[in-house]
Task: structure prediction
Amino acid sequence: MPTAAGRCLYRSNPGTPREIRLIEGDGIRGLAEGPAGRIDVVVTSPPYNLGQPYRLYRDRRPRDDYLRWIGTLGPAVRHALRPDGSFFLNLGGPPTDPWLPFDVARAVSDGWVLQNVIHWIKSIALDRSATGLDRDLALGHYRPIGSARYLHGTQEYLFQFTRTGKVPLDRLAIGVPYAHPSNRRRWKRSPVDRRCRGNSWFLPYPTIQRRATERPHPATFPETLPEWCYRLHGLARVRTAADPFVGLGASAVAAARLGLGFQGWDIDPEYLAFAARRLGRLRPATAPGPTAPVPRGAGAARPARAASRS
Result:
């Protein structure tokens, strides 16, 4: 199924609100060239320009060139997103370059309001002296670094952009119980035993045994991350979600589990094939039929585009 920005390699539930599409092609172009206002939520994580070993994307470009390119993501999402939609952008950076996530956020921010900044905590240490636990506890996974100057990086950012900064959220959809029943009584406005989780989300990676077969991608996020974004925006207001850097399909799997429609792009057909297998384990796929290769003039050229982190 050729399109202006690629060809559909996976399609399920065609013609229904739960239609899922995975498209080989340039996701920024796919968002920009499709109909305006067709997407309710975008959750994505672009390459960070850190030299990750993607198969088809060169993840090491001059910084100004990279920021100019990533800056085109903002207008593309703005075109595709509904006026009351949410754009969740996951960004991180190495300890040696702490400004990188903020530089990228600034590059895409024109025309947007930064409504929330969420901290994705991948690893945390809990001291018994502060928590009342019977022992110190370390949870999650991190990538150790050998340095006398820098700390291990244990968190990334999730920037929620909206057009107005006034988009209502379903905060209790990912809420947590009150620590003690008396806290609920003190907050008379709370009709249920749940409170807002806040902007620190502890979401460790699932443990894997064989990276080559279970996570064959140099940079991913867990399925729960996009799921919480969809829930926070409000499932009642989400018909279709999208990810222009869908990679191994975490955002697609989260959408499928919640019964949402979804559109995802990636330039790497092997990543998309892995994502399709993940989706196929959830429900049968409907084959899109034969597809022809996209002419280079119709799709985006491979060298300057990006694979995802999902």
In short: The two ends are 23 Å apart (CA to CA). Confidence is low (pLDDT under 50) at residues 214-218, 284-306. The longest strand covers residues 81-91.
